[in-house]
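Kindly inspect this one:
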Amino acid sequence: MAAEPGAWRLLSTSFFWLCCLLLLGRRAPGVAAARSGSPPQSPGSSIRTFTPFYFLVEPVDTLSVRGSSVILNCSAYSEPSPKIEWKKDGTLLNLVSDDRRQLLPDGSLFISSVVHSKHNKPDEGYYQCVATVENLGTIVSRTAKLTVAGLPRFASQPEPSSVYVGNSAVLNCEVNADLVPFVRWEQNKQPLLLDDRVVKLPSGMLVISNATEGDGGLYRCMVESGGPPKYSEEAELKVLPDPGATSNLVFLKPPSSLIRVIGQSAVLPCVASGLPTPTIRWMKNEETVDTESSGRLVLLAGGSLEISDVTEDDAGTYFCIADNGNETIEAQAELTVQAQPEFLQQPTNIYAHESMDIVFECEVTGKPTPTVKWVKNGDMVIPSDYFKIVKEHNLQVLGLVKSDEGFYQCIAENDVGNAQAGAQLIILEHAPATTGPLPSAPRDVVASLVSTRFIKLTWRTPASDPHGDNLTYSVFYTKEGIARERVENTSRPGEMQVTIQNLMPATVYIFRVMAQNKHGSGESSAPLRVETQPEVQLPGPAPNIRAYATSPTSITVTWETPLSGNGEIQNYKLYYMEKGTDKEQDVDVSSHSHTINGLKKYTEYSFRVVAYNKHGPGVSTQDVAVRTFSDVPSAAPQNLSLEVRNSKSIVIHWQPPPPATQNGQITGYKVRYRKASRKSDVTETLVSGTQLSQLIEGLDRGTEYNFRVAALTVNGTGPATDWLSAETFESDLDETRVPEVPSSLHVRPLVTSIVVSWTPPENQNIVVRGYAIGYGIGSPHAQTIKVDYKQRYYTIENLDPSSHYVITLKAFNNVGEGIPLYESAVTRPHTVPDPTPMMPPVGVQASILSHDTIRITWADNSLPKHQKITDSRYYTVRWKTNIPANTKYKNANATTLSYLVTGLKPNTLYEFSVMVTKGRRSSTWSMTAHGTTFELVPTSPPKDVTVVSKEGKPRTIIVNWQPPSEANGKITGYIIYYSTDVNAEIHDWVIEPVVGNRLTHQIQELTLDTPYYFKIQARNSKGMGPMSEAVQFRTPKASGSAGKGSRLPDLGSDYKPPMSGSNSPHGSPTSPLDSNMLLVIIVSVGVITIVVVVIIAVFCTRRTTSHQKKKRAACKSVNGSHKYKGNSKDVKPPDLWIHHERLELKPIDKSPDPNPIMTDTPIPRNSQDITPVDNSMDSSIHQRRNSYRGHESEDSMSTLAGRRGMRPKMMMPFDSQPPQPVISAHPIHSLDNPHHHFHSSSLASPARSHLYHPGSPWPIGTSMSLSDRANSTESVRNTPSTDTMPASSSQTCCTDHQDPEGATSSSYLASSQEEDSGQSLPTAHVRPSHPLKSFAVPAIPPPGPPTYDPALPSTPLLSQQALNHHIHAVKTASIGTLGRSRPPMPVVVPSAPEVQETTRMLEDSESSYEPDELTKEMAHLEGLMKDLNAITTA
């Protein structure tokens, strides 16, 4: 019974581990892989374990000779035993039929007789052992190099030479590097015995040190490499007796740089000759090499240094110094130590399931840094989308499949050797489901978010488990056409979405989702096919970027074309930066290499390259670092000082040159000195690089010497310091005790300094190295300063005024400091009073002079009343834009009471303030003054101009744009230019004005399938800005559209064809016969209509005169005091032009705004333009306010008037004698443009040439001012159907005595009134003018062209339609430019809206004067016109 508790514990523990194994076996497919442990198991699954499989022995590098036998060892362990094969240079060897090469039982390769000749080297190469176990995998060994020594060739042979007894001799014998071990020496054709005095260096050279007479003889070297020995030429060595004289030291064999591998031996040769016989010593990194106490460092015969079992610590620079007492010479060599690759972390065995992602980790070290490659079952792993090298050396395998099982090896290789380490991957089968219901397939799997490189999937719970709180999900996905599937698991139970990252753009992926519950995985959803979004293909990083120094100040960088990227590479940008700084510079490069010049010497720089294509910059390369070459120092050592030790020695001290001027590693210093008394020979001594002082001994007593020091690099000697002098003592002074007290000490206090002077101690036999000065307030120990022993005074700076200082002086030498001498002093008080501030300037005013200039004026109360400046004061003006975020001021000084600030921005509010300065006194800033600069014409065009077709209306386009970036004022309007010919003159383009607060506009009735070009100008109150670049747009094709030869769209029963042969929306001319016939018809209809009007007028004169008199009284009263309803503005009748060409009433609305607003005008277009009239007299005196509406006008008359405002109108007052016609052109201010050339000086306005006098109904025959005329402009008003009109009586006078088109003119007057009398903005009014009644008298048009100025052609216009039709009428607008006649274009305009007063106005228009009154009026009008003729032509 006592054993039962233990048994129960054992049973419960076993049950616990069994449950753990069961759970582990039912893991979801996405669970992390198991590493290097027992595999997850489940009931019924076979247990798979990792199989030990590794190499016991691997081949090593071997040197052989021709004809000898070689064994390359290899042995591998596995159960069962592996099959061994061999590869040579990557190819399997067929050893079955090979007579010379055979496989030994342990797996080694035996080569019985090595074959090697000049043209046949079948055995030399790289060998690799391959071990394979069936159904398990393959592993490969490290590679071993078999080198076969070539035929002996002597690069140099011994030469006859002589040597003095006791000196050293060198005999050369250089052969192939692989034959050096086979070199032997003979003396007098006998083998030479080597000992401590006679040695053979690794290069084959023979060194004989401490020569004796027995060393003389004939020497030759021989090479024994398996065949018959090959001998060099014989050379005689003569041993000479000691001559007893001296000879210069020379290196027979200086040291040379070596590269050795850890564990090898290194010999640094160094042999010197000279009399007396020199001794050799070695230094490494400024430290003496101890060859006596070290067992690894041995000094060979002649002075060569041998280092056995080399370690990394042995690397460095070695100096060989030869010294014979009379002379010292030195030479240096670099020892580089390399290391074979070693594994810091080897790959480990991994268990995993299919579709999982795994990573084999591998970390290596070595020198040079090893490269790493991966091998799977003996085959190289090529990186791909599913096999990736991550973190430099690790192998990542994505979406495991069964075939990925096997052995993976990490192979590290550098110049020294290679090594391998492997691990096994086992793919486990999924555990079968336990008893219990499994979930069905997830429902409604959709890609809710698709990007270029990630996709977000969502789904609903399976139908078998609607709640799904305990379900987990696995998303399997793969590229279309790829069998390798990856898996992504949800992060928590119940989550029904997952984001798949790291996808490729424009790639199709297949997704499926599976749910898991506690029993296992359920059904898979149906495959979902999703394609990622395409990505703008930017260039990848430029491969193989390399940087190398070409000089001490230049570095060349090279690279190759990026492997990725869509589109041709346009250029590259090379970035470089000095190490230790954060300022990166760049340069544009078009080729694959560039040299950066002007760099700092011996300075490390980092470089990177970015490629650019049409989409922009690509991915940057990794930084590469390189250091410029070293150079001689460009500056001398610093702080050179001399210390006289005694009567025969001086110590010289210095500091290295500034770091920026060293230009390399300082390898030493050259100290030169000479006697100063005469130009004696200069003595030179070398000092190592880290030594900053040198004791110069053996000098003469009481002699002055000059010293200078120069720094050395490997490139040479830099500049030396200036000569510095010191004199040795006459006799050796006593330095066994401290100096005595100085003989005197004097102080002279100033305000912030004290001048200290002294005399040396009276006892001159004790050495004084210098003096120590201590000082402080109340105590002399606060600060201490040491000065040279020659110095006799010193100034203590930066003291406080009016303070009591205690000063001490002590002499010192190398023994210590002597007895101090004390003194005290009080610094002087600070007597300069603080300046009181001055009064700031007052009355600061800002006077705006122009768009970029403001004059600032002010007054200074500290000046006399006449405000004259007689002293040296000056004023500082500061200003900035009045923006809260702007705190940056600009300043300027002035010596007068005003300053002209220039260079300001147009239409910008600035604030200004002033301060005055006189000597050290300054005032505070004055109160600020503000000023806004004038506007300036826009200096940049509208931007972002786009043209799109209106949906459903192929002949209508929509132009969109953004305001100019440099508007320089409020934009009051835009003008759209368009044409079918981009190269046409600008005055041949069609124009469309747009109100300034709009950024879009429609243009209708364009020709289908025709390319149009669009430009836009912006204007403000100062004029027009530059045009934008032309934007091309081709109108779309549409079935049934009106084209050449096709019927126009149905425009209603009242449609009349346009004149001058314009039978297409774009004025395509017809034949001249049709044009003449149409002209005859229209003139005939006009004559008949005028006759009918005259008859009606005569008939109407028979009506009672009482009704007429009431109308005239009402008409005249309107000109005086009638008001709009709800508005205090005067109602003034519009000027009515007598259009001689069209014989119709032309209402002129005087708009104070210089920009007529016309939008969405449905006029058929052609490439001929409406040329704007230049107006250079833009007066700001007669400015009036006007309110414009942003919506488009649909009024036909307003539209037509807007169209006619685009060209000069040919106006002529009617006269019975027409030889001297008066021509009037009506200018439009918004179209002033330097491209428009017109003779505006020849244009006069007869209707505007009379001032209206309130007391008389008749005009006064005086001309108006030019400024008044210049401000005359047409303004199109937008009139909705709800507009109201004044009383009919106010319109009667304006419609009396009209031609049959008077109804149209009345409609235009109604449409030109303010549309809303209740607006808060002031209503635009018609300018006052004389109450002249306008007439249209029938007259036969002249048969020929007009006789007035041919620069202003006139084209007859079609008569307008009456307004009682509620359909679109077609009107012909006369369009043309100076110098040519244009055919009129049909204008499709919507009919005028219903107006309440229309009926009454039509009724009033029927009234007329009596016949006698009509005659009087006509006679008076004729006289007025003649007066106007004389005035305008004067």
Observations:
- The chain has ten helices and 90 strands.
- The longest helix spans residues 1072-1100.
- Confidence is low (pLDDT under 50) at residues 1-32, 1040-1073, 1108-1409.
